[in-house]
Amino acid sequence: MSRPAIAHGRPSARRIARRRQSEHPMPRVAVDVLLKREILDPQGRAVEEALPGLGYEQVSEVRVGKHLEFVIDAPEDEMASRVEAMCEGFLTNPVIESYRWRVIDDAERADA
After folding, report:
1. Higher-confidence position of 11 and 2
2. CB 87: neighbour CB atoms within 10 A?
3. Tens of pLDDT along 26-40?
């Protein structure tokens, strides 16, 4: 009978997060990103035009964006500045996108 392979090297980010979570709970952050109001949203327009044909009348101003969730290991007094830096420096294009973020609990997770 063969033995399962053992992974060597650095532990995965997921494994580190689980280990740290058991030590102290880390906040889960949700970030919602949309194109700015003045930017044309072709995906939103396509969805808006398709809805009446599917029986969903009286829907307008549809905007399509992205939703991100992650656990962050940061001191409470630094968390906001770290999330802002991630959003402005990597997760969004601040020229054409706006974002909002919040700390969520397990019941608010999109994959719940």
Report:
1. 11
2. 20
3. 999 999 999 999 999
**Amino acid in the structure at residue 69:** E
Decide if 46 contacts 63 (C-beta within 8 A): no
**27 token code pair:** 């906040």
pLDDT at 112: 83
Is there a contact between 82 and 27 (Cβ–Cβ < 8 Å)?
no
Distances (CA, A) of 67 to 53, 54, 87: 26, 25, 12
Interacting residues of 9 by C-beta distance below 8 A, sequence separation 6+: none
Task: Answer yes or no: are the C-beta atoms of 33 and 97 closer than 8 Å.
Answer: yes
Say if residues 110 and 69 touch (Cβ distance below 8 Å): yes
Q: Which two tokens stand for residue 89?
A: 């420096």
Q: Which tokens go with 46? A: 């396509």
Sheet containing strand 66-71, edge to edge, reads 66-71, 28-35, 97-104
